[in-house]
Amino acid sequence: MMVTQAYAQEADTPAEGQVDGAQGAADALHADPTADTHATTEAHGGDHGSGVFPPFDPATFPSQLLWLAITFGALYVLMSKVALPRIDGILANRKAIIDADLAAADAAQQKTDAAIVAYETALAEAKAKAQGIANETREGIQADLAAKRAGVEADLAAKVSAAEARIAGTKAEALNHVDEIATETAQTVVSQLVGDVAADSVKAAVAKASKE
User: Whole-model pTM above 0.85?
Assistant: First the structure.
């Protein structure tokens, strides 16, 4: 803190007194060797008793107020012209960065939502297409199986009819052979019993017995 001229003058006055006191003490030293100790103690006691802390000295209040105003003005100019614009710029820059980040996040969210919608749409279309292919495949397999089954049934029916025809022919042929065998057997037996008999008579008798 600066000290005014009045305080400097007041400070000079004790200094001159101290010089005079020192001179007197030097003169007294030659007269009394113990006077040096008493003089030094009295000088220090006087300084402590009359000194005032400069900020609390009423004589320095005007200069203190002046320097306070100057310091406050300089601090205000420094803050308003340098510090506050820089802080404002930093805050504006940070706000712009935050706004840009929020905009980018919003755009990314919109892209994500669009991608999810496109994925769900493609998945639904794929499921529908797979279901259609499965239905077509199932219908084709069922039609193929029906056609094959119909072919197999027709083949079996034809084979059964052919087998029945063969069985009927074999049966008829067997029946014809049975009549012939029976006729020959009866003719042999009758010939041994009564002698020779006409074959037509034996055949007619066997046919009549077969019908009965």
Answer: no
